[in-house]
Amino acid sequence: MLCPVIFFAQTKHTVSGVVKDIANGETLLGVTVLLKGTSIGSTTNEYGFYSITAPEGNYTLIISYLGFTTFERDINLNADQKLDIELKEDATELDEVIITSEESKKVDLRTPQMSVAKLSTKDIKQIPVVLGEVDLIKSIQLLPGVTNAGEGASGFNVRGGAEDQNLILLDEAIIYNASHLFGFFSVFNADAIKDVKLYKGGIPARYGGRASSVLDIRQKDGNSKEYELTGGIGAISSRLAAEGPMFKDKGSFLMAGRAAYANIFLALAGEDSRAGFYDLNLKTNYEIDEKNRLYLSGYLGNDNFDLEGIFTNSYGNLSGNLRWNHIFNNKLFSNASLIYSRYNYNLEIPIEGIDWKSDINNYNIRYDLGYYASEKLKFDFGVSGIYYNFNPGKLNPLDEKSGVNPEKLDNKFALEAGVYAGLEHKISDKLTAQYGLRFSYFNRLGKQTLNNYANNLPVVYNEELGIYERADPISSTEFGKGKSIATFNNLEPRLALSYQLNEKSSLKASYNRMAQYLHLISNTTSATPLDVWAPSGKFIKPQIADQYAVGYFRNFKENMFSIEAEAYYKTIDNRVDYINGAELIAQNTIETEILTGEARAYGLEFLLRKNKGDFTGWISYTLSKSQQRTPGGAAGGLGINDGKWYSSNWDRTHDFSFTGSYKLNEKWRFGANMVFQTGRPVTYPNGQFIYNGLSVATYSERNADRLPAYHRLDLSATLTPRKNKDRKWQGEWVFGIYNAYNRMNAASISFGQNQETGINEATRTSIFGIVPSVTYNFKF
């Protein structure tokens, strides 16, 4: 090993380049690049680029990344130099490269970034899931601070936040509904995914628009070294992915598709219902020269469901992104993106003659730069703009005899813009800070005619009946195309600090403010295809979230184990709540159904990982509280639930999970999940009275009760034939059991009266009992 030679006032030089996977040429993001024996280092950005500036001298460059071998290279930093690096998974010796021990998933103690969950596709594929389909969303639900909306749902809640408060990005494109088959699967094909990061707190300034979290998913670029085919055949769905070099080895491509064939099994079972989905991931890139590269990526997915001809439903996502990477010099990197995203949802009810269509279109342009100023300062800054076109719904008759009158809800238009700047500052060898400031601007635009109400109150309190009612409009105002209806702007500061106690542990703290200008109008516990997104405007203010977090992080036993413990407190202003009896479907005056309140969430998170050895996995536990309060305000009355704090629909006091993977030998690998969650809050009837001969139920306070606790055990076994080593075709069998002890967890409990006995009774609805599965995966 060569010791670094450093002299004050000595000339400084920069080493920069791109880090890739040697097997397929994929760029690697989040790779740690460090000068050994110093605190000088960096990590690669989303496109594999790194830059390090240090005083002239001899150094040992260390490059490490999760799942890859760590290697060292001696360099003489006597001038600026470009050094591209390729990492390899297997331990071997390359020219001028010394392979050291396997890099573990140890906690990064130096960076101030905290509250981030990162999973590799290898981790995700080892986790047992329902019906044998690898699922990204269900995998992150096994991490602390993340819960699900219910059995079978692909939606998720982060640190007591609502589902609409999560920004989901696929190659920078916004995904509004991340579920297939009403939540049984997610829209993300693991064969097409390179990197997954969930920001629960300490969110960098480059992200904006949601109040709780950011799920940033990056697709593979495609194998630039050789052609490759991967896939899998499962009980419900199958998938196939092809990738390889193109443009005379100056680029690569990826094509990945999935399709479900649940229709076959429903038909064999004599059912007239039909259910299925498909999706397609596409990506290609082209290297113009050493400093310029173009990327084009896209996604198309759709679901179809037919319930015995009673109704048919379809919904899907479409996105595309054209990106240009440009390296100005060894310190300045830029990325320009043009992004399109669309979400559509349709419903047909033949018996009523109804055809309902809705969609969201948004057009996004952004420009981001990263400047590696010195060994102590790293800047990132950029601008973005999103134009929204919301079509809440259009009703058409299926035929002339239906008697249905055509109806069109008002389209809603908006422009959201942001400018941000961030700085990572190494104050000392032990203390590092990350500062950020984002300015966001939102303009709700016409063309639309809006009602006016007395005292500007679309909801009023009826003191005689003790209920909230819809106000009658007194006039209306027409806003022409492009005219401003309402504007909002917010400063969103971010701060994160890391203090390294020693080589094995550190303390971190963060604060971030987030403004959210879009609202999911839904009074269900889990998002449905017919839920309506509405922009802030005259009657709906943007949600403002403030979150504080502190944490302790430690690696021990030579990085075999790691511990992450965090505490957080979050408040959210202007949280939409719904009056009792709210009518949200096909509602053109949604302001008459809602009141505005506030929310808060706080909790403790604990994560223990075992990173090395034949047995790896983690234990996750969260103790938390999520509440909402909605006073009557100017509308009068005490408000929802008498203006008192009540548990939100996604409040889970205790959330425990265990995830483990055991490699018995080269042939067999076993996996297990164990999950326990406090039952979600619900509102039960607490009595009844007779009125005009009819039995009328009375209800307890909102969300005063809970469903029974949720728990299950999942098991898997993976068989890899030994003959895989001797041939190009690689195959494996994955056997799984979801909910191994057949726990009938309650998705809901309904109350009614037995028609024969007249006795009141409760009925539990469960979605899954024990579900065995088998999947064959292949690669060649």
TrEMBL record:
Keywords: Cell outer membrane, Collagen, Membrane, Receptor, Signal, TonB box, Transmembrane, Transmembrane beta strand, Transport
Main location: membrane
Top-rank taxon: Bacteria
Domain TonB-dependent receptor plug per the UniProt entry, residue ranges: 113-212
Transmembrane segments: none
Entries under InterPro entries matching the protein: Beta-barrel_TonB, Beta-barrel_TonB_sf, CarboxyPept-like_regulatory, Plug_dom, Plug_dom_sf, TonB-dep_rcpt-like
Membrane topology value: Multi-pass membrane protein
Gene3D superfamilies for the chain: Carboxypeptidase-like, regulatory domain, TonB-dependent receptor, beta-barrel domain, TonB-dependent receptor, plug domain
Entry annotated with the keyword Coiled coil: no
One Pfam family matching this protein: TonB_dep_Rec_b-barrel
Compartments, as annotated in UniProt: Cell outer membrane
Residues covered by the TonB-dependent receptor-like beta-barrel domain: 286-739
Family the entry assigns: Belongs to the TonB-dependent receptor family.
Name used for this protein in its record: Collagen-binding protein
